[in-house]
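Hi,

I'm pasting everything inline rather than attaching a file, because the server keeps stripping attachments. The sequence lines come first, and each chain or strand is labelled.
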Amino acid sequence: MSQPPTLLADARCFALLPCAGSGSRAGTAAPKQYQPVAGVPMVRHTLAAFAAVSRIARVLVVVAPGDGVLAADASISVAACGGATRAESVFNGLAALRAQGVRDDDWVLVHDAARCLITPAQIDALIDACLPDAVGGLLALPLPDTLKSESGGRVVATIDRDHKWLAQTPQMFRLGLLHDALAARAATGFAGITDEASAVEAAGFQPLLVRGSAQNIKVTYPEDFALAEAVLRSRTT
Ligand code: C5P
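And the predicted assembly:
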């Protein structure tokens, strides 16, 4: 394992929301993050959860170039630097945070705009667990189901589920460490980098797993919208 950075007591926390996907699996006309859920565009629920966490100094939303959906709201900080992949959007967003004065030893919580069921309590739990940690970590859930490997629509193997976790977001790392880890994968088009932790792992570190909630789904398929709506409405009654 590479040498982790030293702990700094005055490091601040920022949030980066990749919001530049097209959401092709969701079956919606517009990108899924803007689809109304419980009356407002999905990303607004995500933003509300982060706004309720006092230790987050600022939230930056990464949207696709030319995307003006959030532009009219001056209270939302937006960078139109989204890339072809989620990893590229995050990489560009980290550069934007740096240009805004965020330091390499500050923490960045990267969170999918499409995980609109995240709660302030879950964000706080991740911060509590990672602040004293030299590397950082992610919300995740031990795999509850049996895992199958497939080929041609048929099962070819059952994968041992012991010690297997489903990665969620937020994922919390220091800006410098995460930027360098992603930069090392840029030349290969971020191949195999499906979350921040995978880049940090490839750089030789072992991110901390912090137990999340089964409700922290990434809205992906058409049926996920009704589920997200039901959960959000249940929280307001
Ligand atoms: O497509 P997927 O559900 O994996 O996207 C996860 C998050 O990453 C979403 O919030 C999406 O908007 C964002 N994303 C992005 N840039 C891309 C692809 C996805 O910001 N090129």
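The longest strand covers residues 165-174.

If the labels don't parse on your end, tell me and I'll reformat.
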